């Protein structure tokens, strides 16, 4: 039994479970409830910073955004400390995003994971990750009148990540690995935007999470 808990497989499992629990921390849900708002019952029904900003306030929304990014970053750091490296980091990273989507602490409900993905990118790719996230945010803020600017910003951010990897001759596999995760987050974010639009809500160009 002792050998199982010290084996590489069990360590990897612990890293994935830990990453899920970090991603599942219900920051938007709990913060909104403290202000008397059920974030899942208003707007897009997703626990993200923009929904919090609409129905709770700007300061709580900023707290949620930073917190959601920190969840993604901490999941990568935790996995690294557990010995997960190379392209394998994508598995605990995906677990963190999945935890944010379907939090065990919030009845398996959550947000779209864009901010969590940003935190993952910063922690895994450090300087290039910071630049990629900064470019994504610049695109979002620059396209003030453009629908789906947050999604376009995410595409630009990933493009910068790819170009940086090539320019600095960094390992390619981690970037390739995160491509699928980025696509999944894009899809979920798009569904959130469509849901709001279908409800007749104005699209917000500053959305980083729905």
Helix and strand topology:
Blueprint: H1 2-6, H2 8-24, H3 27-34, H4 49-55, H5 58-81, H6 90-101, H7 114-142, H8 149-167, H9 173-198
Helix pairs in contact: 2-5, 2-6, 3-5, 4-5, 5-6, 5-7, 6-9, 7-8, 8-9
Your description of this structure?
This protein has one domain (2-198). The protein is built from 9 helices and no strands. With 210 residues, it is mostly helical. The longest helix is centred in the middle third of the chain and has 29 residues, at 114-142.
Overall radius of gyration:
17 Å
Q: Proportion of β residues?
A: under 5%
Q: Quickly give the structural class.
A: mainly alpha
The overall pLDDT, averaged over residues, is 85
Largest sheet: number of strands, sense, barrel closure: none
Distance between the termini: 44 Å
Number of domains: 1
Question: How many DSSP H or I helices?
Answer: 9
What's the β-strand tally?
0
Fraction of residues in H or I helices: over 70%
Rough outline: globular
- Give the uncertain stretches in residue-range form: 202-210
Strand/helix succession? HHHHHHHHH
Short synopsis of the structure:
This protein is mostly helical and 210 residues long.
Quick tags:
210 residues, 9 helices, 70% helix, disordered C terminus
